[in-house]
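Q&A FORM
Asked by: J.P.
Topic: structure of Cysteine desulfurase

PROVIDED:
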Amino acid sequence: MVSTPAWGDAQVSALDDDEVGRIRNDFPVLGQEINGKPLVYLDSGATSQNPRSVLEAEQEFYEQRNSAVHRGAHHLAVEATDAFEDARSTVARFVGVEDDELIWTANATAGLNLLAYSFSNASVGSAGGEAGRFALKPGDEVLVTEMEHHANLIPWQELCRRTGASLKYIPLDDAGALRLEEAARLITPRTRILAFTHTSNVLGNINPVGVLVGMAREVGALVILDACQSAPHLPLDFKALDVDFAVFSGHKMLGPTGIGAVYGRSELLNAMPPFLTGGSMITTVTMEEAQYLPAPQRFEAGTQPISQAVALAAAANYLSETGMQRIARREAELGQRLVTGLSAIDGVRVLGPGPGEERTGLAAFDVAGVHAHDVGQYLDELGIAVRVGHHCAQPLHRRLGLSASTRASTYLYTTSDEVDLLVDAVARIRPYFGVAAPGATS
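REPLIED BY: S.T.
REPLY: Here is the structure written out as tokens.
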């Protein structure tokens, strides 16, 4: 049995197989066949599928309300603006924040770059005043972890390159867990920013946000949370987590591509200099200077992702109505089913927490003697869709002694039988490729 997760109400039950079966009827793509086999979609960690309500919400916007927002007085423009801002309210409520604390971006990567470049603008003194709190200089430090997705690593590398600050990272132990004793040593008065993932897209672990936030608070560092792999799968309240900023993407939580969001404390957002500038984010413009709107508009220059925001709100409603705690418990069970089944196969190494340890419904693994791309191709022939490669986490793979892995990731529409089909298929891979069992001699 999977242990009770550390979050949530212990009285809330997981989704059962019958409910999942009904949920699957809402996802048209899941009814197809691949290579004559029913599609087994185990790549939701990369991109989730969309229920009809999300598809219909975006289509209905284009059919009934398509217009620019915040810049027209005609009927369609008013309706479009209302739909756009209603969507912001819905998604803000989904993650426990105020409407003016949620900024629309193209995706989480764009959100992290927005933060890094805004801090960079503060560092060169373009904004002055309260923006100085975000300015970095030589001697300052930005701290990340060794498990970060490239999206939460490279922007900070570049920020440090531009400002002269130093980038450091919290290392991992051999099992892939954060070395918290090293975190305590590395977080010092020099630390200005602590940026880390809530749950790894490779390891499936759930990092101790409260512990890390507590360490950062002691030295006055800003905390930035990458919630790409938690917003779709765990009940979230960014206020309760006490982070200063957080990012997530729509396409991983049943929404469309082309939209993500940044959460930031209102007082911080309004002190930050903008990143992108142009129309829709100004109050007054002369030939010599411009004055900017308060957040969130000051960070939403140009034409906004309007239909995508409406569709993302429909996705948030779908998840809320299903129940995020029930989804999380279901995926915790599927994660245990994955790690237990895969760990029992000779020659298969599962990355991250082992059986019985807390993890999300995701498992990356290595099949000894068979390259991850060959594993993925073999599974695809059986209609099983997984992710292969380094999953935009090369330093993490390097730390674990690998160049690539295969990742299976579940969601609220994944059945127990699909997990079992994957495990059975992986058990046949080494014999198929003629790879000897570990320790065998010729």
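FOLLOW-UP: Confidence is low (pLDDT under 50) at residues 1-8.
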